Amino acid sequence: MQLKRAISVLLASAMIVAMTACSAGGGSSVETGSKSSTANLPAFDSLHLGTDYKNIKANLKFLTHKTDLVNTTFKDYVQQFQKLYPNINITYEGITDYEKEMSNRITTKDWGDICMVPAFITNKADLPTYFIPLGDQKTLANTYNYTNMWMYQGKTYGIASNGNIQGMVYNKKVYQNAGIMTLPKTPDEFLTDLQKIKDFSGGKVVPMYTNFAAQWTMTAWDAYIGINATGSPDYMNITLPHEKNPFSKKKDMTGPYAVYYTLYEATKRHLIEADPTTTDWEGSKPMMNKGQIGTMALGSWAISQVQTAGSNSADIGYMPFPITVNGKQYATVAGDYNYGINVTSSNDNKIAAMLYVKWLVEKSGFAASNGLISTVKDDPLPTILQESFKNVTLLEDTPAKAGEEALYGNINTDSELSLNSNYTHVAKIVEAAEGASESLDGIMDDWNKKWTAAQQKYGALK
């Protein structure tokens, strides 16, 4: 199998163009006469749906990655919202290759009014260039979850559509048939269980399906290296930017190395699909529903998609990532894509967009109907997550310290690893393990060197 050549082809197709800053243009507005002004906008949490701004008129464009919902669910949402605000019209545009397309469009002034904040914005100092502040983060955090995800200098620039727990989707029946009655809590226990699945099924069930060819799915592995692997909410934004050789192996098999070890060894031991370059994301969902796949590394957002891909929804479960820190398991809880509002829209459109986003978060029922975690603090955890996460400590990442908001993003970009935003470094692990071309220790040493060089550039090494 020519994985190395395949990766180079995938990389070429996934290149993201460099972003340039966009400036605000002139125009009329409700209060200030400036299209780019945000000083007199209401705070997101202060808005009262159905009573505030009843007569406001606006035509909004909404860019979304959920192409399958544009003409169904989202169309229904607009109709419901317009019962409260009949003069606000919303047109959705679904984008298939969302991150790549948005890397081009976000630098323009007129991409629309609402979008899902792209993951490639790793430097939070760029947020005010593109989006309006929705309010003070500490104040918003009284009502909403995940308000620090897109925070800069105390202001929140995005509100999560819903929340996700970082774990793994698995087929409960497959695990039970293989004699696995207790979910694994360490990487080696997990690898042993994957081997049991392979042996029991005679190779007919893929123990762990990587979804390698989809590219973006590989970044799920980066999402485990923080709280899941360390138990520390400070790790990603406070510890990692300063830590010496963070990708080195630890004696207790925690931390980033343990996460990537799990993927490397599963690949090396042939516990994944026979040819990763031919995986099919859409096809993997009914395969897992039928019991042809044991496990997939995906956020909890994927649960409902796998459940509804066939007639065996009861067989689908969600398990903690198999790492234990000092006898306990942890999981990162984080916002999914956040709603962001264009800083260059007119004030009428900004306010109308805030009203619609607030309705989506508080009234649409999107999270509950899809088994997702609500952005609203008082809403309960979905039943499927209560089952296997009752003894798992759920934590959100701590924001960066004041003055260091851009540090992680700068180091992440300059190291060329692009954790959580680009798949190629994770793909290299599969390539190396499949072809026995490089050891995991060799890969991790290379990552440490790149990370250290970037740390030194920004004076971040302790």
In short:
The protein is an alpha/beta fold and 462 residues long.
The best one-word shape is globular
The total beta strand count reads: 15
Question: What Rg, in angstroms, do the CA atoms define?
Answer: 22 Å
Compute the number of helices.
Answer: 18
Keywords: Cell membrane, Lipoprotein, Membrane, Palmitate, Signal
Protein name: Sugar ABC transporter substrate-binding protein
InterPro entries: Bact_solute-bd_prot1, SBP
Signal peptide: 1-23
Topology overview:
Layout: H1 3-13, E1 58-64, H2 73-81, E2 88-94, H3 98-105, E3 114-116, H4 127-130, E4 135-136, H5 137-140, E5 151-152, E6 155-156, E7 159-160, E8 163-165, E9 167-171, H6 172-177, H7 187-201, E10 206-208, H8 227-230, H9 235-239, H10 255-268, H11 281-290, E11 293-296, H12 303-307, E12 316-320, E13 329-335, E14 338-341, H13 347-362, H14 366-369, H15 383-388, E15 392-395, H16 407-414, H17 424-435, H18 440-457
Keywords: Cell membrane, Lipoprotein, Membrane, Palmitate, Signal
Signal peptide: 1-23
Protein name: Sugar ABC transporter substrate-binding protein
